[in-house]
Amino acid sequence: MAAARLCRCRCRALLSRPAGAVRARRGLAAGPEMHFGFQTVTEEERREKIYQVFENVAKKYDVMNDSMTLGIHRVWKDILVHKMNPCPGTLLLDVAGGTGDIAFRFINYVRSVRQRQLQRKLKHHQNLSWQQIFESYQKDEFNSLGDSQVVVCDINREMLKVGKQKAEHLGYSEGLSWVLGNAEELPFDDDKFDVYTIAFGIRNVTRIDLALQEAYRVLKPGGRFLCLEFSHVSNPLLSRLYDLYSFQVIPVLGEVIAGDWRSYQYLVESIRQFPPQEELKAMIEDAGFFKVDYENLNFGIVAIHSGFKL
Amino acid sequence: PSHSYTGQGGQQSEDYESEEQLQHRILTAALEFVPEHGWTAEAIAEGAKTLGLSVAAAGMFHSDGSELILHFVSECNSKLSELLQKEQKLVQLGEAEKKPIDEFLRDAVEARLRMLIPYIEKWPQALSILLLPRNIPSSLNLLTSMIDDIWHYAGDQSTDFSWYTRRAVLTGIYNTTELVMMQDSSPGFEDTWRFLENRVADAMAMSSTASQVQSTGEAVVQGLMGAAVTVSKAETSRAVR
User: Fold this and answer.
1) Domain harbouring A258, CATH code
2) Contacts of B1 in chain A (CB under 8 A)
3) Under 8 Å CB-to-CB from A11, ≥6 apart: which residues?
4) What is the mean pLDDT of the segment spanning B14-31?
5) Is residue A28 in a domain?
6) Domains held by chain A: number
7) Which domain holds residue A271?
8) A87–B45: do the CB atoms touch at under 8 Å?
9) ipTM of the complex
């Protein structure tokens, strides 16, 4: 009797420890059961495993993306930025942005929009005196990005390292910053960003509802939430071909190119475990977003969800 | 803002507007930036900024600015309806004379076209966007309802085919005058108003010509019938003899 009470006390003590603490006793199911691919693990285990997956694949991440999707992922990311249609002066938060693909595309887009704006302005300013032109250059009216900025946030140090190296290599320096952070608990103030994007990242977040709530918190009123993610294919024939390709070809590519079959097996399984388009739309609406909509790309292999904080 | 309560005590009412009302407010605010940015998503973004929203709110609308133009057109049409209604009330109360049809049409079309003057530089761009296949149903709808309104206040109560011809004629007058206005550089657009006057006069003349043609046609037919009867009677009488 006393022993039972003692046992119960110990259980309660374990459960009441803060979530950050490592649950050593694997025997006691000390956290809610979650999926890691097709395995069942606890919440904490899932976070650790996913961290390890991306630590392993970081260096070969871009190469693997190109080979798995035959380069189509570039088009998907382009479509995302076109849908965003950012104007100069936009502040973008790219979560799980690791190697910076979305951030670089955003910078390119804003730069070209800004150039067109400046050309139009110059056409109107044909009759300025030299003094006035000199003054306008002083005022830095002609800055090439128009005060747009992108903050790349990722939970994985290795991915951020690869991203920074890429930025240096490609010559992106202005308007870009790199922050280490967890999507479920963003290190930013409320009402800060114009657009929040998460491309192929929300699948790896352990508590999607928390990530969505954080997204709602850090966005300004009127701000936009955009999520690019693998989703469910409804066409049965295509779905079978897609399954065949995913389970037979991709892990093999992973082994051959990156020397890591398990990580890519996880990747493929996690796509199957992710909620389909309508369910994700409902989750986004639950977080408080309005005008939530999704657009299927390639028959549902990938979907872009969009919502506004109104 | 998904509930549409109205009048929930002034301060609260902003939280309870619907999405449509918020979009309406953003588009109205965006109109003042049109002369500078044109009918584009940029103007909508600037409009959203003045309301305290993020520029990303412009993503709610299509990127070619067509919703902004349609909003503007529908606002102008409502203003025209109000104007015509007020005039009608004045006439009913006996404080104003009932205008003859051609003057009424001329004044209505002129009032409607004058609303374009602040945006006249960017209006050709708007017209071209309204002609995109995607936008044709809505823009045509707005145009026909405006023309219908004008004829209604002009006192048209026809129920025969002339209903269609009247609307077709007025649509033609309106569209051509609009196009003339686009490239008119005379002071106060007087060339446009003169053009409008001539077109309306033409339309009036045409309708009287049409009725003249009809009565002439009837007369001719009667004459032919009479001639035919006379000839056939002459034939039978000759045959009898």
Assistant:
1) 3.40.50.150
2) 290, 310
3) A28
4) 84
5) no
6) 1
7) 44-309
8) yes
9) 0.76
